[in-house]
Known about the structure:
Blueprint: H1 6-15, E1 22-25, H2 31-43, E2 47-51, H3 65-76, E3 79-80, E4 86-92, E5 95-102, E6 111-118, E7 125-137, E8 140-143, H4 146-154, H5 167-177, E9 183-184, H6 185-192, H7 196-208, E10 213-217, E11 220-224
Parallel strand pairs: 1-2
Antiparallel strand pairs: 2-5, 3-6, 4-5, 6-7, 7-8, 9-11, 10-11
Amino acid sequence: MKARGDKERLLELIAQGEHEQQDFKYVVMDAAKLAKSVSAFANTQGGRLLIGVRDDGMIHGVTGEEEIFMMHAAAERYCIPAPAIEFETLHVEGRTVVICTIPRSEKRPIYAVEDVKIDAQTGHTQHVGKRYAYIRIKDENIVASPVHLDIWKHERQERGSIVHYSDDDTRVVNTLEAHAEALSLNRIVRLSGVQRFKVIRILSRLIRYDLAQWKFEEREFKFQM
Protein backbone atom coordinates (compact mmCIF):
# COMPACT_ATOMS: atom_id res chain seq x y z
CA MET A 1 0.00 0.00 0.00
CA LYS A 2 1.37 3.39 -0.97
CA ALA A 3 2.21 5.63 1.99
CA ARG A 4 0.27 8.87 2.23
CA GLY A 5 2.16 11.97 1.17
CA ASP A 6 2.49 15.13 3.27
CA LYS A 7 -0.22 16.93 1.30
CA GLU A 8 -2.77 14.15 1.56
CA ARG A 9 -2.19 13.74 5.30
CA LEU A 10 -2.33 17.48 6.02
CA LEU A 11 -5.52 17.99 4.03
CA GLU A 12 -7.09 15.08 5.89
CA LEU A 13 -6.26 16.69 9.24
CA ILE A 14 -7.47 20.12 8.14
CA ALA A 15 -10.76 18.61 6.95
CA GLN A 16 -11.44 17.59 10.57
CA GLY A 17 -11.48 21.25 11.59
CA GLU A 18 -10.71 22.49 15.08
CA HIS A 19 -12.01 20.24 17.83
CA GLU A 20 -11.17 18.97 21.31
CA GLN A 21 -7.89 17.43 20.15
CA GLN A 22 -6.89 19.76 17.33
CA ASP A 23 -6.24 23.47 16.95
CA PHE A 24 -5.02 25.63 14.06
CA LYS A 25 -2.36 28.30 14.56
CA TYR A 26 -1.74 30.83 11.80
CA VAL A 27 1.51 32.07 13.37
CA VAL A 28 3.14 31.65 16.77
CA MET A 29 4.45 34.85 18.28
CA ASP A 30 3.58 34.61 21.97
CA ALA A 31 4.84 31.66 24.03
CA ALA A 32 2.57 32.60 26.95
CA LYS A 33 -0.55 32.28 24.78
CA LEU A 34 0.69 29.02 23.30
CA ALA A 35 1.18 27.68 26.83
CA LYS A 36 -2.60 27.87 27.36
CA SER A 37 -3.14 25.42 24.49
CA VAL A 38 -0.34 23.17 25.73
CA SER A 39 -1.88 23.16 29.21
CA ALA A 40 -5.37 22.46 27.88
CA PHE A 41 -4.34 19.52 25.72
CA ALA A 42 -2.06 18.03 28.39
CA ASN A 43 -4.81 18.26 31.02
CA THR A 44 -7.52 16.75 28.82
CA GLN A 45 -7.00 14.00 26.25
CA GLY A 46 -3.93 15.32 24.48
CA GLY A 47 -4.02 16.97 21.08
CA ARG A 48 -2.11 18.65 18.31
CA LEU A 49 -1.48 22.14 16.97
CA LEU A 50 -1.26 22.62 13.21
CA ILE A 51 1.10 25.58 13.03
CA GLY A 52 0.95 27.40 9.71
CA VAL A 53 -2.77 26.78 9.12
CA ARG A 54 -5.31 29.60 9.36
CA ASP A 55 -8.60 29.33 11.24
CA ASP A 56 -10.42 28.88 7.92
CA GLY A 57 -8.20 25.91 7.05
CA MET A 58 -6.04 27.69 4.48
CA ILE A 59 -2.38 26.64 4.46
CA HIS A 60 -0.20 29.66 5.13
CA GLY A 61 3.06 27.99 6.08
CA VAL A 62 5.78 28.90 8.57
CA THR A 63 9.57 28.83 8.73
CA GLY A 64 9.62 25.72 10.91
CA GLU A 65 12.63 26.25 13.18
CA GLU A 66 11.27 29.45 14.72
CA GLU A 67 7.91 27.85 15.51
CA ILE A 68 9.52 24.79 17.07
CA PHE A 69 11.70 27.05 19.24
CA MET A 70 8.60 29.00 20.34
CA MET A 71 6.71 25.81 21.19
CA HIS A 72 9.63 24.55 23.26
CA ALA A 73 9.59 27.88 25.12
CA ALA A 74 5.84 27.57 25.71
CA ALA A 75 6.16 24.08 27.17
CA GLU A 76 9.44 24.40 29.06
CA ARG A 77 9.30 28.00 30.30
CA TYR A 78 5.61 28.85 30.50
CA CYS A 79 4.19 25.54 31.76
CA ILE A 80 4.49 24.01 35.25
CA PRO A 81 5.55 21.23 35.16
CA ALA A 82 6.90 21.14 31.62
CA PRO A 83 4.91 18.58 29.60
CA ALA A 84 6.23 16.39 26.81
CA ILE A 85 5.77 17.64 23.25
CA GLU A 86 6.60 16.11 19.87
CA PHE A 87 7.10 17.68 16.46
CA GLU A 88 6.56 16.70 12.85
CA THR A 89 7.19 18.89 9.81
CA LEU A 90 5.11 18.58 6.63
CA HIS A 91 6.00 20.22 3.33
CA VAL A 92 3.11 21.03 1.01
CA GLU A 93 3.41 23.01 -2.23
CA GLY A 94 6.42 24.97 -1.05
CA ARG A 95 4.93 25.70 2.39
CA THR A 96 5.94 24.23 5.73
CA VAL A 97 3.46 23.23 8.42
CA VAL A 98 4.61 22.12 11.86
CA ILE A 99 2.49 19.60 13.75
CA CYS A 100 3.05 19.88 17.49
CA THR A 101 1.60 16.94 19.43
CA ILE A 102 0.95 17.26 23.16
CA PRO A 103 0.20 13.92 24.88
CA ARG A 104 -2.17 13.69 27.82
CA SER A 105 -0.04 14.31 30.91
CA GLU A 106 0.24 11.84 33.76
CA LYS A 107 1.24 14.73 36.05
CA ARG A 108 -1.87 16.84 35.91
CA PRO A 109 -2.52 19.65 36.40
CA ILE A 110 -0.21 21.36 33.92
CA TYR A 111 -0.33 25.10 34.64
CA ALA A 112 0.27 27.92 32.17
CA VAL A 113 1.96 30.99 33.69
CA GLU A 114 1.37 34.58 32.64
CA ASP A 115 4.99 35.67 32.43
CA VAL A 116 8.55 34.59 33.10
CA LYS A 117 11.87 36.25 33.81
CA ILE A 118 15.21 34.76 32.80
CA ASP A 119 18.04 35.23 35.29
CA ALA A 120 20.84 36.90 33.31
CA GLN A 121 23.57 35.16 35.29
CA THR A 122 22.23 31.64 35.77
CA GLY A 123 19.81 31.43 32.85
CA HIS A 124 17.18 29.96 35.18
CA THR A 125 13.52 30.69 34.52
CA GLN A 126 11.56 32.55 37.19
CA HIS A 127 7.78 32.34 36.93
CA VAL A 128 5.96 35.59 37.65
CA GLY A 129 2.30 36.54 37.64
CA LYS A 130 -0.65 34.19 38.03
CA ARG A 131 -0.84 30.62 36.80
CA TYR A 132 -3.90 28.76 35.54
CA ALA A 133 -4.64 25.19 34.53
CA TYR A 134 -6.71 24.85 31.36
CA ILE A 135 -8.82 22.08 29.90
CA ARG A 136 -9.95 21.60 26.32
CA ILE A 137 -13.70 21.75 25.69
CA LYS A 138 -14.68 21.41 22.02
CA ASP A 139 -12.38 23.93 20.31
CA GLU A 140 -11.76 26.19 23.33
CA ASN A 141 -9.20 26.39 26.11
CA ILE A 142 -11.13 26.90 29.38
CA VAL A 143 -9.70 27.62 32.83
CA ALA A 144 -10.20 24.50 34.93
CA SER A 145 -12.57 24.66 37.90
CA PRO A 146 -11.45 24.17 41.52
CA VAL A 147 -13.17 20.78 41.36
CA HIS A 148 -10.93 19.71 38.46
CA LEU A 149 -7.86 20.76 40.43
CA ASP A 150 -8.99 18.64 43.36
CA ILE A 151 -9.76 15.67 41.10
CA TRP A 152 -6.25 15.80 39.65
CA LYS A 153 -4.77 16.13 43.10
CA HIS A 154 -6.37 12.88 44.21
CA GLU A 155 -6.77 10.93 40.95
CA ARG A 156 -3.83 8.67 41.69
CA GLN A 157 -5.46 7.39 44.85
CA GLU A 158 -6.80 3.86 44.73
CA ARG A 159 -10.37 3.86 43.42
CA GLY A 160 -11.33 0.79 45.43
CA SER A 161 -10.88 2.43 48.82
CA ILE A 162 -13.78 2.61 51.27
CA VAL A 163 -15.70 5.91 51.31
CA HIS A 164 -17.21 7.19 54.54
CA TYR A 165 -20.02 9.74 54.15
CA SER A 166 -20.36 12.63 56.56
CA ASP A 167 -23.34 14.90 57.17
CA ASP A 168 -21.79 17.39 54.74
CA ASP A 169 -21.61 14.69 52.05
CA THR A 170 -25.26 13.89 52.62
CA ARG A 171 -26.29 17.55 52.34
CA VAL A 172 -24.41 17.99 49.06
CA VAL A 173 -25.80 14.76 47.60
CA ASN A 174 -29.33 15.66 48.68
CA THR A 175 -28.94 19.09 47.09
CA LEU A 176 -27.86 17.57 43.78
CA GLU A 177 -30.60 14.95 43.82
CA ALA A 178 -33.27 17.56 44.59
CA HIS A 179 -32.58 19.37 41.31
CA ALA A 180 -32.97 17.86 37.86
CA GLU A 181 -30.77 20.53 36.32
CA ALA A 182 -27.02 20.78 36.81
CA LEU A 183 -25.94 23.29 39.47
CA SER A 184 -22.98 25.65 39.63
CA LEU A 185 -20.47 25.33 42.44
CA ASN A 186 -21.63 28.57 44.06
CA ARG A 187 -25.26 27.49 43.94
CA ILE A 188 -24.47 24.14 45.54
CA VAL A 189 -22.67 25.98 48.34
CA ARG A 190 -25.68 28.25 48.92
CA LEU A 191 -28.30 25.52 48.77
CA SER A 192 -26.44 22.92 50.83
CA GLY A 193 -25.08 25.28 53.48
CA VAL A 194 -21.73 23.45 53.28
CA GLN A 195 -18.47 25.42 53.17
CA ARG A 196 -17.07 25.97 49.69
CA PHE A 197 -13.80 24.07 50.20
CA LYS A 198 -15.76 21.08 51.52
CA VAL A 199 -18.16 21.15 48.56
CA ILE A 200 -15.18 21.13 46.20
CA ARG A 201 -13.71 18.10 47.92
CA ILE A 202 -17.06 16.27 47.99
CA LEU A 203 -17.79 16.95 44.30
CA SER A 204 -14.28 15.82 43.41
CA ARG A 205 -14.78 12.53 45.22
CA LEU A 206 -18.25 11.95 43.75
CA ILE A 207 -16.92 12.50 40.22
CA ARG A 208 -13.88 10.26 40.76
CA TYR A 209 -16.22 7.47 41.87
CA ASP A 210 -18.60 8.05 38.94
CA LEU A 211 -21.44 9.13 41.21
CA ALA A 212 -21.65 12.64 39.75
CA GLN A 213 -20.65 14.40 36.56
CA TRP A 214 -19.68 17.87 35.41
CA LYS A 215 -20.67 19.81 32.33
CA PHE A 216 -19.80 23.19 30.86
CA GLU A 217 -22.81 25.25 29.91
CA GLU A 218 -23.66 28.94 29.86
CA ARG A 219 -19.92 29.64 30.22
CA GLU A 220 -19.57 27.96 33.62
CA PHE A 221 -19.02 24.52 35.12
CA LYS A 222 -22.05 22.79 36.56
CA PHE A 223 -22.53 19.51 38.42
CA GLN A 224 -25.22 16.88 38.80
CA MET A 225 -25.65 13.32 40.01
